[in-house]
Amino acid sequence: MLFRQLFDQVSSTYTYLLADERTREAVLVDPVFEEHARDAALIRELDLRLCYTIDTHCHADHVTGAWLMKVALGSKIGLSGHYGATNVDVPLAHGHTLRFGHCALEVRETPGHTGGCLSLIAEDGKTAFTGDALLVRGAGRTDFQQGDARQLFRSIRDQLLSLPDECFVYPGHDYSGRTVSTIGEERLHNPRIGGGAREEDFVGYMENLGLPHPKQLTIAVPANLRAGQPESGTVPAAPDWGPLVMTYAGLPEVQPEWVASHLDSVHVLDVRSPAEFDGELGRIDGAALIPLEELRARASEVRDDKPVVIVCQTGKRSGLATVILRKAGLTRVANIAGGMVRWRQLGLSS
Ligand SMILES: [Fe+2]
Fold it and tell me: Within the chain, how many helices (H) and strands (E) appear?
């Protein structure tokens, strides 16, 4: 199974991408609204077909990216049926099996942090995605959204600590850089529920955490009850000047064919050396030349009355040039994918 662990720094949320390496069918667990472009780029670059997004619960600290993923990639939205949320295609419940290619996830209800919390267990029993029920050396808070410390204690004890010791635990969040644990490790060392803690110990601990109220609660919960569909009902506006694609590396790119048919509506900036500019690959008609090593000092020379598309030999130096110009304050700027080599391969004119 292909496996990627992604992190959102703002909410300290982990998002997990799982896929059958043969059939390329994929599942995304707990996507974050603001990380949608990053996640979509990775799915595209790995040549995966996203079948489902699954939210382990209705989050209070971030808005899910589930609805955006569905609009962009046609994935189905999975969430516990407990919440009665709108836009949910697969209302999940205990015992449900989600299949993607030859892989599968077993759904276990692990309420307590919220009433509809789910954990997902890989079919081989070696990996558990525990959402905010069991965290690395912690457990999800139980002081809002129908939280119930007694219920969480039983969920963790009966549904998670009953898994084999060697089963990996991938949590929904971590605030200290811990990425993974195991059931055996948490059974011994989890300060809330490990070491044979009794229900009263756990409840006493959870009821005295004294955590601040989550700032996003009033925004996130209503949005998540729509599976992350914005209140306007529409996708947030994308750059309107061209078919930009954000790569997983975080670079805005345009395809050379689009540039070739829109030369009048963009400025082309070539960042190769003067010798390459006059060399065998030729140049794009009307391109201005500023070699990459001079670009930081000469960024103010770049005209911004039209969007700027940047080219080099293969698209690497121009990728860095894109970053430099964005830092210099240009907003409408993109890298031409594949550079002059690709431009020539496609037989585009210059
Ligand atoms: Fe949560």
Answer: 11, 20
The DSSP output letter for 338 is T
Say if strands 49-54 and 25-29 run parallel, antiparallel, or are unpaired: parallel
Q: How far is the CA of 10 from the centre of ligand 1 (A)?
A: 14
CA angle 193/148/62 to nearest 5° reads 95
| 156 token code pair | 């963790």
Angle at alpha carbon of residue 156, lines to 151 and 157, rounded to 5°: 95
Q: What is the pLDDT of residues 53-111, one digit of tens each?
A: 999 999 999 999 999 999 999 999 999 999 999 999 999 999 999 999 999 999 999 99
**How many angstroms separate the alpha carbon of residue 31 from the centre of ligand 1?**
13
Q: Mark 298-314 as b/e (b = at least 16 C-beta within 10 Å).
A: ebeebeeeebbbbbbbe
For residue 75, the Cα-to-chain-centroid distance in whole angstroms is 14
Cα 113 to averaged position of ligand 1 atoms, centre (Å): 7
How many angstroms does the Cα of residue 131 sit away from the middle of ligand 1?
Answer: 7
CA of 12 to the centre of ligand 1 (A): 11
CB 92 within 8 A of CB 78: yes
Cβ atoms within 10 Å of 250's Cβ, excluding its own? 13
What residues contact 319, with CB distance under 8 A and at least 6 apart? 249, 251, 335
Take residue 240 and report the two structure tokens written for it: 């309107």
Q: What is the pTM of this model?
A: 0.87
Type of residue numbered 99: R
- 58 alpha carbon to ligand 1 midpoint, in Å? 7
For CA atoms 42, 44, 49, 55, give the dihedral sign.
positive
Question: How many beta carbons lie within 10 A of that of residue 263, not counting itself?
Answer: 16
Task: Return the closest-CA partner of residue 134 out of 52, 56, 80, 64.
Answer: 56
What secondary structure letter does DSSP report for 251?
-
Structure tokens at 101: 């290619």
Query: Token pair of 152, please?
Result: 């969480």
Q: Per-residue pLDDT tens for 302-341?
A: 999 999 999 999 999 999 999 999 999 999 999 999 999 9
